[in-house]
Amino acid sequence: MEEYRSEEEQVEALKKWWDENGRSTLTGIALALVAAFGWQGWQEYREGQREAASDLYQQLLEAVAGAEQAPAQQGVAERLAAQLKTDFSGTTYAQFASLQVARMAVADDDLDAAEQELRWVLAQADSGSDTALVTQQRLARVVAAKGDTEGALALLDSSGVNPYQATYALARGDILLAAGRSEEALTAYQLARQTAADDAGQVSLAALEQKIASLQPAEPRAIEAAPLALDAVGDAAQPDEAEAASVDGEEEQ
């Protein structure tokens, strides 16, 4: 009887707990299942979006590659880029597509279109990301080509850690040199040389050294005086030899 009563008490306690908590427990389980299946569905959706964007971007690259032989392919590339920006604006593929269109616009000397594409990328890319830093550097060159030197330099005036500091310095040097500010350009080129080893981008050191050499003043060379001869023949010949030495020295300088 004691065991029976104990079992009855356990059943009653279970019923009481179920009446008080059963509905909320079922609701929690249902919500957990919905969340699990919803997350899985969202992941599958995002994966599908990425694959679709990747396919479009691959088509765009093929169109860009064929544009040199078939100019009509450039229009195809621009349409694909527009589709990526409309349907998949949150993906990096859309940003890369816009960079490709900007490059084609620069080749066509359409700097306004290039600037528009590059500013769109900056608005979409995460601040401080590689995409944003590279885009900002390209935009600076486009802005400088349009005649806004100060605006271009402001774009290159980045603060904080910049893995592209050498290529940024190189761009500053090119912009300053084009503006006729040679001394400032030389300083920028020298900074590019100092930081080239740590730069995430690619800097042609040979080309950089040529730019530095073209701006650095040539160091004067000391001219050694020709020894004086004591005999008559030497004394007679000395003026002509001294004059030749002087001319040679001036040519060396």
UniProtKB/TrEMBL annotation:
Q: What would be an example GO MF term here?
A: protein-containing complex binding
Which cellular compartments is it found in?
A: Cell membrane
Topological type in the membrane: Single-pass type II membrane protein
* UniProt-listed SUPFAM superfamilies: TPR-like (SSF48452)
Q: Name the residue ranges with Acidic residues bias.
A: 238-253
The organism sits in which domain of life?
A: Bacteria
Q: What Gene3D superfamilies is this protein classified in?
A: Tetratricopeptide repeat domain
Which stretches make up the Ancillary SecYEG translocon subunit/Cell division coordinator CpoB TPR domain? 15-215
Instruction: Output the Gene Ontology cellular-component terms.
Output: plasma membrane
Q: Where is this region: Disordered?
A: 232-253
Carries keyword Repeat? Answer: no
Keyword Hydrolase among record annotations: no
**What is stated as this protein's family in its record?**
Belongs to the YfgM family.
| Protein name in UniProt | Ancillary SecYEG translocon subunit
Taxonomy-wise, where does this protein's organism fall, top ranks first? Bacteria, Pseudomonadati, Pseudomonadota, Gammaproteobacteria, Cellvibrionales
